[in-house]
User: What shape does this take?
Amino acid sequence: MPREQSDTKAEIRSVALELFARQGFEKTSLREIAERLGVTKAALYYHYASKNDLLTALVTPLHEDMDALFARLGDGPVEPRLVFGAYFDVCVRHSGLLLAVLADLGALAQIGLVESVLEWRDRLDVLLVGRDAPLPARMGAVMAIGGLQDIAVVLDAEAAAAHREHAVRVALAALAAGASGMD
Assistant: This one.
């Protein structure tokens, strides 16, 4: 019985994400992905016209989740606990992709993901401390946001998710430490 097209696309994305995270985008060939799936390269091209199209398909859900997060949070002011919890959830959900970003920044910069991540981080920073906050307060926000993202990527995402509340408390402490440095 042939596989459903949506199942095949999901399998392709899953294998590609694993290989991109481990080897980097540039060092992973479509041939490798096809071999891993037990399909021909032509079959892979049926679903994704190019490796960049495949990469874009991997990145789209992260963009959608971040758009939804900012729509939910609005323009502020927002309770930092809510911001941190929501951002941590997105980072955990997309930890494989974020790991792939670290493995190959150049390729992901070509499709605009690195720029998007920096923009998202800036928007979160502004939500937490405001655009004109003093440098120490912004440092606390940057450390908290970056720390949450890194927890999801560096540590096992599933295990990290089990400690979500602790991660949020640590982020709140980093934010508070930044604010206290303004004296």
Summary: The mean pLDDT is 88. Residues 77 and 100 are 32 Å apart (CA to CA).
